[in-house]
Amino acid sequence: MITDDKMTISLVNTAFESLTGYTLQEVKGKTPRILQSGKQDASFYQNMWKDIRVKGSWQGEIWNKRKNGEIYPERLTIHTIVNEEGIVISYFGVFSDISHNKVIEKEIEELTFTDTLTNTMNRHTFYEQLEDLIATSTENSEHAMLVVDLDRFKQINETLGNEVGDFLLTEVADRINSIVRANDLVSRYGGDEFLVTITDLNFQKDAVHFAEKLNKQLNKPFYIQDREIYITSSIGISFYPQDGIEVETLIQKADKAMYFAKQNGRNQYAFYFDELQTDAERLLLLESELRKAIQQKAFVIHYQPKVSLDTNQIIGVEALVRWANGTLGVVSPAEFIPFAEDTGLIIPISEVILEKVCMDIVDWRSRGIQHIPVSINIAALHFQQDDFMERINAILTKYNCSPQLLELELTERTVMEDSESIVHKLVKLKRMGFKLSIDDFGTGYSSLSYLNRFPLNYLKIDSSFIQQMTELQDKQAIVDTIILMAHRLHIKVIAEGAETKDQVKLLKEMGCDIVQGYYFSKPISSAAFLDFLELWEIHKQERTI
């Protein structure tokens, strides 16, 4: 049953008509009160609607009345549907008759032994069945434990909503179940993580074959609410009995292998090996030290100059974060940034970086340097927050820093995930005065046809193309094409990672607008940048391009 926001019925299906005895014509325009049996008092409905308003949904058992007056128990789920502004526009309810004892028993059994969302085993049942399997295993038995974690599922859930996320999880469970054997075990372990036990292996390569087959299944598009959604998974594998003979040990070791797969690029599988124990301990320490660094604002910002190939002027810098920790030593951004993205710590880290950049801009202004814009990398998770613009604007206001001195760099994947809402947000940022660029172009969607929809100032070609273009003709052709097409869309092009004079010379011949890289300068501290800028102004005429 579907109603509008005032609970007026607009649509029911044939199952509703069969179960209640009412036709659509008889209930359309009325409210669900037509079904009330009188067995629930006012407080029951008050609590129900409190849950719906607070949580967005309600599920439970209720007594209702058919058209012929018969009262029956039903299992009812009510969800709200909201628009982009979060305003409720309608409700939909799904219910089933549970009056028959066998149906009731089945409901109880499902609630006891299965995950109600995906219909896979719940954790308790999975543990019990795996313990029984181990207890009855022979000396030669071998089983594989797989921990399957969906990559970047949190972003999908936060961007498209829990309803889409829940539907995606059920579809993932269906795909897993479609390739397991009858004796294998499948469980939704929690959130977006699944456990799979492949029983009675002939060879360990059977587990590899399954992991490859599963990744292939999950790489196929999911079609949800007229959307085409793509996900990948990271899979960790441990083996009974070589990695452990207890359920918890096997899961822990497979979990460590899964994190290893995720750290090494996602969309792959990895086996447990003893050294992962040390890696897992480092991850725990890394998270603890990152949280301390956020509180203490212990990050350092370095700046890499950008040079205009037309005027030979320094026309901006990119802010790059650095972190030296007393316990861990110097930690590479390649290690702690992906970890921060996975844990959600990237949001407070990004705001610390923005604060420090604003402080440097204010310092430069006091020294007479007024017009050096700074580009900052914006993580997808940070950008997707509902209050993203309000929070960065608050930081700028605190330091009296103009948005016109900031360039926000977003990846291709970030802007393509939900393009309509992204366009709306980008337009607002542009109106506020920020400059906008797409970072690492060519490594993701690479769809120039999409770029015309976004109010971009710059397109940044990934360094992997720049560093190989003087040796590889195909890389040179790609760079040349990107520059040509971007200019036709009135977007300026930045080439990052230029390391040689030949690369810079070729980029200038192609018509590239701006270059940054070690040829001009490595990332340097704020103080070192001021010295660099002074020397550049003195000697720039000597540095021909």
From TrEMBL:
PAS domain residues: 1-31
Residue span, EAL domain: 283-537
Domain GGDEF: 141-274
PROSITE patterns recorded: EAL, GGDEF, PAC, PAS
Domain annotation PAC: ranges: 58-110
Pfam families: EAL, GGDEF, PAS_9
Domain of life of the source: Bacteria
Protein's UniProt name: EAL domain-containing protein
Annotated organism of origin: Psychrobacillus lasiicapitis
Lineage: Bacteria, Bacillati, Bacillota, Bacilli, Bacillales
